[in-house]
Amino acid sequence: MSKCCKTLSLILSLTFGLFTATTPAQNSGLIAGNGIDPALIDRAKMGDPVAEFQLSVIYRKGLGVPKDPVLSASWMRRAAEQGVPRAQYSLGLCYELGFGVPKDEEQAVTWYQKSAEQGDSDGMRALAIFYEEGRGVLKDGRQAFELFSRAAALGDSYSQLQLGIAFETGNHVGKDQEQAAEWYRKAADQGDAKAQNNLGALFQFGNGVAQDYGRAAEWFRKAADQGYAPGQFSLGLLYTHGWGVPQDYAQGLAWYQKAAKQGSPHALVNIALLYHEGKGVPQDEKKAFDYIRRAAEAGAPDAQYQIGMDYDSGGQGVTPDQKLAIEWLRKAAANGEKRAKQKLVQLHAQDDDLSPEAVAKAEELRKAAEQGNADAEYRLGYCYSQGEGVHQSAEQAASWYQRAADQNHAGALINLGSLYAEGRGVAKDPTKALTLFRRAADTGDSFAQYRVGLAYDTSEGTKKDQKEAAKWYRKSAEQGLAGAQFNLAMKLGDKPAEMYYWLSLAAPQLNDDAQDLATKYRDEAAARLSPSDRAKIDDRVKQWHDAHPSAR
User: Is the pTM of this model over 0.85?
Assistant: First the structure.
């Protein structure tokens, strides 16, 4: 949700309760018969600010009289001009919303400022939001932070939440995960669902607090029970992985579905994975595809990329359709999905290159391949996969890769495994793909070792086995493959020193979003280490780079 929408939601939630100077019982004494108590009107006309404020409430809510926004704002102004803080805040809100007065954000700022100066936490919070968004004033994040701090100290839960976010992200203040946890807890204890979810995430990853999946589950559940979609998704994630709660795919699915009903694309993606893997539900590729498509239509770039890949390869039971593949990949690329951009380049490069030079090269490779040269067989298979000097044919690519694989050619084993994993040119067979990757991995190929780790990590062609996944990731990581280093680090959340080491190696080799994510997790791991421990690990990283100069 954008900041503007977030702010509007907050304001609208306050609108119905902003004029609360009197209780219902007190209001009954202000209304005579079907009208307003004349004594109240007399006091208001005499300049009694409390009476003026009460009249504003009556006209705002239509208590015994027709609702009248203009009269309500008029009486509110008279009370505000006499220095009533709640009236000043409420008049500011009238100007912000255009209730009974012309909409005017600069006037709103003026009255919020007056209210804040008198110590009204609502005025402070409202003014902070305006500074944060640059509405009616010049944008000033630092001033917003100071105002949120003042309101939070007075117990305003929304401001406490904003302080937690600021300390967690380092926005306008130095990053401090412990301070983030403290402020999230204050807001969470007041029932703020977003704060409860954010606090749960800190416990999940051990940021600012000791890692505790059980505590994470408690806070996610509090948020989820309030109908907060991210909390529902997070609780579903814990159930599907068995983190802090007994592993229960049915419970995970139930919480994902609650989040999905609110449009959570992440929940839709994870429901698709459950149907794809047959976990907690009967395996159903059609339903898996339907959920991925819903996530894609909701704007999730990773889902748009997956839909494009499915249409390209015929995955998840769909009929291959390159036109639709390109359409979805373009949507994903436009939303920043780097893999989609790379795939689009590949798809446009798949037009056959039948130039004389390419044809001659392919013929030369064919002659050597027909003599049983494994490298030539592998390279000719690649020519068929890319349409270089021959008409593109996944079936022919698989045939030549197979001949080279029979001679234990690592590149052919990997590429043939990829064809079986994707169902291109051969029937899709994840188990056979893993067998081929394992054979290549046994030759010491780092990418094949990574693919074996990934198979155990995602239960593709085998049962999920985190210990085996970590073992193969480590083999690949030790050879310098950044993806393996990152995935291995993600399995070492309870070992911040090792996590920091592997992410320090991986981050410089990754691109864009992946690099940002690795850097974020590396810094979080570093925060859990002493300066001397970090220095020792930095020395290990330097020694590794000295031994592997090509990985710089």
Answer: no
